[in-house]
Amino acid sequence: MATKLYVLPGSHPCAAVEAALRLKSIDYQRVDWLPLAQVLLGPLRYGGRTVPGMRIGSERLVGSRAIMRRLDALTPEPSLLPPEPQARERVLEAERWGDEVFQSVPRRIIDVAFLRAPAAMESYAGDARLPLPRAMLRPMLPLTARLMAGRNNAREETARADLDALPGQLEKIDAWIADGVLGGDQPNAADLQIGSTVRLLGSIADLRSLIEAHAASALARYFPPMVGEVPAGTLPADWLPATSVSI
Description:
The protein is α+β, with helices and mostly antiparallel strands. It is built from 11 helices and 4 strands; from the N terminus they run βαβαββααααααααα. It has a 4-stranded mixed sheet with strand order 2-1-3-4, with helices on one face. β3 (53-56) and β4 form a beta hairpin. It is globular and about 45 Å long. 40% of the residues are buried.
């Protein structure tokens, strides 16, 4: 059956699903959308208003966790979940936290960064095959940044709260790595869910030293190098955790 994955360039849950597809050697077609296109087109193509979305033949799937469960059912090996029940539950717990809590952190921070530096948004498109020429899209970047921030409830106060909480969240991930829940030779579903978020956070230059100071940074190895960057100095220095302030 033909497999089609609908993504937004730079989206970390989309990157998690792409990594799972590569791990399982599943052929697929990637469809790149412009920001916010999923709100209008997603319900028609795969039954949801968020990405990633997937079509497998006539079957429609929405969200990274649902898609990864389906991929495991279709191609059991290599599995994204350990077979032993207790280990499986710990991976599912970490994956759930990565999806429901951690995933939104870089989204809100980057949306606020784009409000301050809209041109940075284009860098995340990389080699994406967009439906319009980039020269036509550039004048729309400031408006797109405002619309994305509104959709994701990204404001200065939410970004600052996320930045305050980030060191503790990275320590939580470090503890899972130390306990063997994350960070194995072959990634599990939680590695992909959380690692894609860590990788995106590392693309924010003002946070890179903080990310690299944690064991969590090693989870980015499951992915290709990140395309795109929020330049240093975009976030005010007094917003940043102390260990990430440039010297």
